[in-house]
Amino acid sequence: MKKTIQSIKGIISDLREKSSHGLTRSSKYGMSTAAAILLVIGIVVFIEVISYNNNKQFDLTKDKRFTLSPQTEKIMKSLEDNLEAVAFYSTDDPTRIEVEELLKLYKYASEGMFDYSFVDMDLKPAAALEYNIHENESVVFKYGDRHVSVRVTKDEIYDEGEKKLTNTILKAIYTKKKAIYFLTQHGERDIDGTESRDYKKIREVLENQNYSVNKLDLLTKAEVPEDASLLVIAGPKTNLFEEELKSINNYLEKGGSLLVTLDAEYYSPSLEKYLAGLGVKTEKDIIIDTESRVHGGDYTIPRVEIYLAHPITKDFDIPSFFFLARSIEIDKDAEKSSGWDFSYIAKTGKNSWGETNIGEINKGKASLDKDKDIVGPVPVVIAGAKEIENVDEEEEAKKEAKMVVFGDSDFVNNSFFINEGNMNLFVNSVNWLCDVEELISILPKDKKVDTLILAGKKDEVFLLLSSFLVPLLLIITGTAVIIFRRRKA
Description:
Layout: H1 2-19, H2 25-53, H3 70-77, E1 83-88, H4 95-110, E2 114-119, H5 125-130, E3 138-143, E4 146-151, H6 161-173, E5 178-183, H7 200-208, E6 211-216, E7 228-234, H8 242-253, E8 257-261, H9 269-278, E9 280-282, E10 286-289, H10 290-294, E11 303-307, E12 320-321, E13 328-330, H11 332-338, E14 341-348, E15 352-355, H12 358-363, E16 374-375, E17 379-387, E18 400-406, H13 420-433, H14 458-488
Parallel strand pairs: 1-2, 5-6, 5-7, 7-8, 8-18
Antiparallel strand pairs: 1-3, 3-4, 9-13, 10-15, 11-12, 11-14, 14-17, 15-16, 17-18
Helix pairs in contact: 1-2, 3-4
Domain DUF7088: 62-135
Protein name: GldG family protein
Organism: Candidatus Zymogenus saltonus
């Protein structure tokens, strides 16, 4: 690069020396032009070298179309082995260009651990048979001795392309699915239900994250299954039996993980008593948030906007919204005696409080009473861990039990889970509890195309401007320049 610049300087100096020896005006002008061109070329080469050695990408699109989600980037940076993709698209398929642009982003994020190639199965059918591919618009990911495929069509590449590719990568790099069990028989949220209060959609999200999601009835099974990475108790409406609580406690004492979501409308006294013994104190209140009304919601839908330091909420800055939530407190004395170590990880805003007079809420007359109510910011999510002393010496076991408790179970039901903050807060909690911290981040989301709709005569005005006035303006400007030059000549 240094030699190139010196050469350009030498040429310019030589041209200047020649121009001083009686050259004509036109010759001097030509040499000056040549020198300017060489200088511009030198600058361009210099910028190219700098940009090549400092390769950075900037996405200025509104929906960050050319930016991968934080979770995808985290997964690609955590690859321990080389990952390869074989994309089957015909050479004349315009979708191929879109897929390649997306795969380039994956390659850039992997820092040298990922590469890809394209194959037209119509031209190379043997390659398709090798991976059991029967039609184009398919992508195969190879990781070690495993390969997993997914179809990504032209209708999916923009809206769901990243989500489908990342979910397939997870299936390729994780050989064994971790099992999650949802407790049943107490009016909990149904992971197969399609009603608004149910959890079918969040179950699908977890399955796409490569988890095995199952139901568990502790009234018919004496113990939590040994393969359980996580037990979820989602919004119970009735008491848990003593035998069930013993099974849950035994599971935790072996290093299990528990996620509990509670509601303000329903109580499970036996479960809440058990949690209180561990240091998790539940209040009989409903959180009121006056700020929610400003954002167009109801004051019983508190905005969760304060996230405290914890692996679950690291770099988490997306607000979430709960519905008829209750506050969760840490009882330090019970926590100390039980051996658990809890911390607050999410709170509502400063303009919220935990209203203990439910009757006033029903009348629409709720107001903060600092002597009786819980003054905001109100804690709604806590997380904790406990070191396990009696670890099985014969088998590799977890060294700690984990727990996360939410003061609401509606926030990820089939209606509310679409809120990006709600879904990510829940899934991050699951990933932390299942010891898959490399997945703790912001999930890929569907991208939407913003469409400009012109109503009334606006479309006619736009057509007139684009089809007639703009070209006419260019013609007038060009004609004026030509006339001006001729007159000057």
